[in-house]
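in:
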């Protein structure tokens, strides 16, 4: 598809605008690859960490996978829409462990006053999404708990409508890979949890798992997760 745009102006209404050449195509592909791998891997690692800390929730996820898919075949992409409980787990994991804690910096286009704060035009604006995910005024007092029930009986979704849960950002600069990223994370998690049982190494107890974050533009675990799988499907 990108090749079919080769040598076309970026703005169809302006012949003199920058042309899409090999260099631009290469930059777009590199952007997509780098934006995809780390984000998906970080999300998967945090979610499995939370499940290892909460064996009861891990068991519910595996029960759902067993009920929806059975134990004789592997998860397929068409199964993902039926994994409601796993969907709540992923939302809760994104609430506590956003991949991009400050999203991407914005610049204000106009002077504006919000809640008594004056923000001049052309200010750099950072959105502390990490703090929104842990704000008791937004999520109630059990904000530090991994508590999926907060998503039952409401329509809070990850698709930029609900500003308390925007792990893919929002608006014009929101993540263009939302659908692909969410499908990848759900698919990989479903396969890892369906095919394998997971335990912490050396008899480590769930509460002893170190959940420290490495703070930066993205927010992975400070130390990679170490966990041991055992195959669980039949045949
Ligand atoms: C779990 C997976 C992913 C997460 C959590 C994620 C999260 C984000 C976030 C928070 C932003 C900044 C949005 C904002 O500030 O409003 C972003 C931007 C971006 N993402 Fe993703 N992303 C994921 C997967 C992907 C994938 C699969 C692709 C492409 C194949 C992708 C491509 C991009 C690009 C190109 C931008 C920059 C957009 C811009 O600046 O206009 N992301 N992503």
């Amino acid at each position: 598809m990108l090749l079919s745009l080769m040598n076309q102006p970026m703005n169809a209404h302006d012949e003199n605008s920058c042309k899409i050449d090999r260099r631009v195509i290469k930059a777009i592909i590199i952007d997509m690859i780098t934006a995809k791998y780390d984000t998906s891997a970080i999300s998967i690692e945090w979610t499995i960490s939370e499940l290892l800390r909460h064996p009861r929730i891990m068991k519910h996820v595996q029960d759902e996978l067993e009920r929806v898919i059975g134990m004789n075949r592997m998860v397929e992409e068409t199964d993902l829409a039926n994994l409601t409980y796993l969907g709540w787990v992923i939302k809760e994991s994104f609430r506590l462990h956003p991949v991009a804690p400050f999203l991407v910096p914005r610049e204000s286009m106009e002077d504006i006053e919000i809640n008594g704060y004056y923000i001049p035009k052309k200010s750099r604006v950072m959105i502390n999404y990490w703090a929104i995910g842990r704000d008791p005024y937004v999520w109630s007092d059990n904000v530090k708990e991994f508590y999926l029930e907060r998503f039952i009986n409401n329509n809070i979704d990850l698709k930029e409508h609900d500003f308390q849960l925007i792990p893919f950002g929002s608006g014009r600069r929101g993540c263009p890979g939302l659908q692909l990223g969410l499908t990848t994370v759900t698919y990989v998690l479903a396969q890892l949890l369906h095919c394998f049982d997971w335990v912490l190494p050396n008899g480590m107890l769930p509460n002893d798992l170190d959940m420290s974050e490495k703070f930066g533009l993205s927010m992975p675990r400070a130390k990679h997760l170490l966990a041991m799988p055992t195959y669980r499907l039949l045949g």
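note: The mean pLDDT is 93.
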